[in-house]
Amino acid sequence: MGSKGGKSHLKRLAAPGFWPIHRKEKVWTVKSSPGPHPADESIPLLIVVRDILGLAKTSKEAGIIISEGKIKVDGRVRRDRRFPVGLMDVVEVLGLNRFFRVVPSTHRFLAFQPIDEKEKTFKLCRIENKTTVKNRKIQLNLHDGRNILLNPEEASGDGYKVLDVLKISLPDNNITEHLRFKEGMYAIIIGGKNIGKHGKIVEIEKTPYKKRNLKTVKIVGKDGVEYSTIPDYVFVVGEDSPIITLPGG
């Protein structure tokens, strides 16, 4: 009889390239469990604790730290060592007053940027899709798997649109700010060859009848260098300046 469902184990050679693990030291590694981020765009919590934050030397030690509830992700204690940690997640180490936000990196796709205690209270989430549900309510589907329900009048007019970014309080998930995807906003590139670069959006291609993934967005960094990418790779992080801490200031 054939196997059913996905496999729960993963070889190190088959792990995503941005995971900071030795490929030939051992055969197996931990695999991300189903959760808020895709397996190829996230890092299991055990690897975060052991290899990135350096809180443990072995997987057993890291598993004990996690099972004791000493790690919070987005304001909630996570005890699953395979829990996937991904883009814009806020990681807190209880007892050490250490806080990190997962941001795009020019080196390893995802970087754990140290943040202060004030910044750990919110998260930025991008709207990936909008659907209409029961009682004509609008459901906003965010990049990390969250869903937010709005009344029709809240989402009507020039309201929430796909690729807009919401500033959400943690852990109660209340919308505190709305950052629109438009020219003049500050954004960071989350994919492609220019991943991790950030600056102001100076131009968004508005060619009608053209698919979104074929359009071009131009971003100019603080050093004056211009980067071109597609809308799906643009993540708005502020208006005149970023409201979160980014690598390189």
Structure write-up:
The protein has 249 residues and is mostly beta strands. The protein has 3 domains: 10-117, RNA-binding S4 domain (Structural Genomics Hypothetical 15.5 Kd Protein In mrcA-pckA Intergenic Region, Chain A, Roll), CATH 3.10.290; 121-179, OB fold (Dihydrolipoamide Acetyltransferase, E2P) (Beta Barrel), CATH 2.40.50; 186-238, SH3 type barrels, CATH 2.30.30.30. The protein is built from 3 helices and 19 strands. The strands form 5 sheets. It has a 5-stranded antiparallel beta sheet with strand order 5-4-7-8-9, with no helix packed on it. A hairpin with an 8-residue loop joins strand 15 (186-189) and strand 16. Helix 1 crosses helix 2 (59-67). It is globular, with a radius of gyration of 19 Å. The mean pLDDT is 91.
Mean pLDDT: 91
Taken from the alpha-carbon principal axes, the silhouette is globular
Report the CATH superfamily of the largest domain: RNA-binding S4 domain
Query: In the residues, how many domains can be counted?
Result: 3
Poorly predicted tracts of residues: none
Structural class: mainly beta
Taking Cα atoms only, what radius of gyration do you get, to the nearest Å? Answer: 19 Å
Could you state the order of secondary-structure elements as H and E?
EEEHHEEEEEEEEEHEEEEEEE
CATH class of the largest domain: Alpha Beta
Helix content: under 10%
CATH domain topology of the largest domain: Structural Genomics Hypothetical 15.5 Kd Protein In mrcA-pckA Intergenic Region, Chain A
CATH architecture of the largest domain: Roll
